[in-house]
């Protein structure tokens, strides 16, 4: 079974792999892309949820006008069979995207109205532009991923056992969500539009976005009938392998050295939090079975660091850089920090001038 799963894993795209890692670890993630490709990325993630993992999903397009009620009601889906609730090719009238700043209600199909008392939180929540939502909405998202429940005016809804919240952001690096929500996001990944959107390209011969393509009835039935490429049993199997993966003393020491070097790096402001270190350890163990290993290696430490810390590192402003306490010149410090972002800090720590890699 393990070999069969690994073959499937090796065929996954970068976005599919990011989602799989979060499902294995039962955590949540940020996926970033270029501003002009964010709609295609959202549509790709819808197809990933339905076709690759067979999970229900809901999409919310956040704006500065999004309210708590908007967020709560949008992530609820009808508790019915997967072919009814998870189809990635729902008609435009059933779309959960917010159409305008004045959005206050969600268009539902007649079937949805008939099952108004039988709603549940979707397995996968795709939150487009979550960083643009008001602070109270982001706090509600944080409560959802921490407590696995959400409160509406009339009920309390519990998240399903398999649950994933994906914050889809566009253009930028470093922290953009509220402080605590950002810390609880397990990994971050940048999807380059040049890498393509394989599920969209497979679905439509001309490779255009779903929103620009007329849907055809026969094709909808064919797609809805497809079985997920990776089943819940396979995800659970990978999760058990992750739990028993071994981290040797030497690799553990290297991991802690990486954390220490990040905390002491002159370009890093606000340090590195304890929950980030916990996530670092969890991702290292998760990556081992995905590479056919029962133990973590130094290379997996580097790979995990790039995904764990990219959205967490705050770059210090020149007037707050610590060497100023000992007489450094602000203009000189500003010149040294120019062009340095979270990615450059991580590569510096993992490079020859950073933590020593165990042999």
Automatic annotation (TrEMBL):
Native source species: Calycina marina
Domain of life: Eukaryota
Protein name: Magnesium chelatase
InterPro entries the UniProt entry points to: Nucleic_acid_metab_PIN/TRAM
């Amino acid at each position: 079974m393990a070999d069969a799963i690994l073959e499937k894993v090796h065929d996954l795209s970068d976005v599919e792999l990011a989602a799989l890692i979060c499902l294995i670890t039962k955590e949540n993630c940020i996926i970033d892309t270029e501003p002009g490709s964010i709609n295609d990325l959202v549509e790709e993630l819808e197809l990933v949820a339905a076709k690759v993992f067979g999970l229900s999903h809901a999409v919310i397009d956040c704006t500065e006008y999004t309210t708590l009620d908007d967020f709560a009601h949008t992530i609820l889906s009808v508790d019915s069979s997967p072919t009814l609730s998870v189809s990635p090719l729902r008609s435009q009238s059933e779309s959960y995207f917010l159409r305008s700043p004045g959005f206050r209600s969600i268009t539902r199909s007649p079937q949805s109205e008939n099952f108004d008392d039988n709603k549940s939180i979707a397995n996968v929540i795709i939150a487009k532009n979550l960083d643009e939502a008001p602070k109270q909405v982001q706090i509600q998202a944080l409560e959802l991923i921490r407590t696995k429940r959400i409160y509406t005016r009339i009920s309390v809804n519990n998240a399903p056992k398999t649950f994933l919240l994906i914050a889809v952001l566009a253009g930028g690096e470093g922290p953009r969500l509220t402080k605590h929500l950002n810390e609880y996001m397990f990994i971050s990944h940048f999807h380059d539009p040049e890498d393509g959107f394989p599920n969209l390209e497979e679905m439509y011969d001309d490779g255009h976005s779903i929103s620009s393509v007329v849907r055809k009835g026969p094709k909808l039935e064919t797609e809805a009938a497809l079985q997920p490429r990776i089943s819940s049993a396979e995800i659970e199997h990978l999760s058990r392998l992750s739990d028993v993966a071994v981290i040797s003393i030497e690799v553990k020491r290297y991991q802690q050295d990486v954390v220490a070097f990040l905390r002491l790096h002159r370009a890093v402001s606000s340090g590195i939090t304890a929950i980030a270190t916990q996530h670092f350890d969890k991702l290292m163990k998760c990556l081992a079975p995905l590479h056919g290993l029962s133990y973590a290696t130094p290379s997996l430490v580097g790979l995990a660091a790039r995904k764990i810390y990219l959205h967490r590192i705050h770059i210090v402003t020149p007037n707050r850089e610590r060497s100023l306490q000992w007489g450094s010149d602000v203009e000189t410090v500003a010149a040294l920090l120019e062009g340095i972002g979270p990615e450059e800090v991580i590569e510096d720590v993992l490079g020859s001038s950073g933590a020593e890699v165990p042999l």
